[in-house]
């Protein structure tokens, strides 16, 4: 009898524990299925959601209850089924634009190549034909991750050009609306190994002119030295760019031609006049050099520098040289910027940064103070010629 009671008591005890276990399982199941976000409306009529985990509130920016419930369902569904997020996004986006989910980076490259002048388009085409960009061509834009971009950047043939154009097409896709958000934040992009060009010195220029046997190329280098123009701008000059009555040489920057910017105007001095007298008196100044590709002109200049054992110089070094010579001579910075086609003072400073500008001694300023002379000059670069005359008077 006693054994029977103990067995019955054990059965009731086991049944009680089983009921408690079932209750706990149902409770956990209910918590797992519980929506993380809750919907509520404030007095202004705008609907908000509250995160039941972090207790943070976020505005849905709508007073339409139907739209608010859809946004709420999307948020809860994103938490419950993260694996389906990308697929659902593709489904929604394909309803807006069928091509949205099928576009690849090849489409971005093809669209980007169409922009710019002809020489710029050629450079873009050469860059996108390189092996690093082959890794990205077939990748769909919507599926792009940071690992795809780093694969291009870390390719053994990747360099500054690859880094430059990869970032360009990334931003271009953003501007077109084909890329909804940046693949990588600005801080995540690796720093580019910048090449610092240096200015051509007077001695180096004289050695190049002395060694150059081709008269047309020699005059080309001399006009680069006197004008500071880019190789394409000077190579395409003709007598139509010369205003004989006002003694002015004017031209439009080739790379800014489609923007209607970069106009340069320079008074013809005795040295430029002497060069113009040696050039053909009609048509283009440099009829043969004009027909050469920019890369061929650059290669010829590089060959000449190599024969003279001049290192670290390119044709663009003539622009750096002109900017630094202008600063040393005391030309107002604004005039130099206008001539070189620079809108940014930072860019112009990078060109003219190697110049050494001599400032007046402290005793000059102390003497001016004793004479109660007030200087209204705002910049030494803009008024260095006046200071030179004043220092000579000392």
Order of helices and strands, N to C? HEEEHHHHHHHHHHEEEHHHHHHHH
| Assembly classification | single chain
For the sheet with most strands, the description reads: 3 strands, antiparallel
The coarse overall form would be elongated
Total tally of structural domains: 4
Give the termini distance in whole angstroms. 131 Å
Strand content: 5-15%
The average pLDDT is: 77
Order of adjacent strands in the largest pleated sheet: 1-2-3
Low-confidence stretches: 26-33, 378-385, 387-394
Counting helices, strands and paired strands, the structural category is mainly alpha
Percent helix, as a range, is 40-55%
Tally of alpha and pi helices: 19
Q: CATH fold name of the largest domain, please?
A: hpI Integrase, Chain A
| Beta strand count | 6
Radius of gyration: 35 Å
According to CATH, what is the class of the largest domain?
Mainly Alpha
CATH homology group of the largest domain: Intergrase catalytic core
CATH architecture of the largest domain: Orthogonal Bundle
Q: Explain this structure to me?
A:
The protein has 19 helices and 6 strands. By secondary structure, the protein is mainly alpha-helical. It has 4 domains: 2-89, no CATH class; 105-188; 212-352, hpI Integrase, Chain A (Orthogonal Bundle); 362-393, no CATH class. Helix 10 (215-227) packs antiparallel against helix 12 (270-278) and helix 10 crosses helix 15. The model is unreliable at 26-33, 378-385 and 387-394 (pLDDT under 50).
What tags apply to this protein structure?
elongated, 6 strands, mainly alpha, three-stranded antiparallel beta sheet, 6% strand, hpI Integrase, Chain A, disordered C terminus
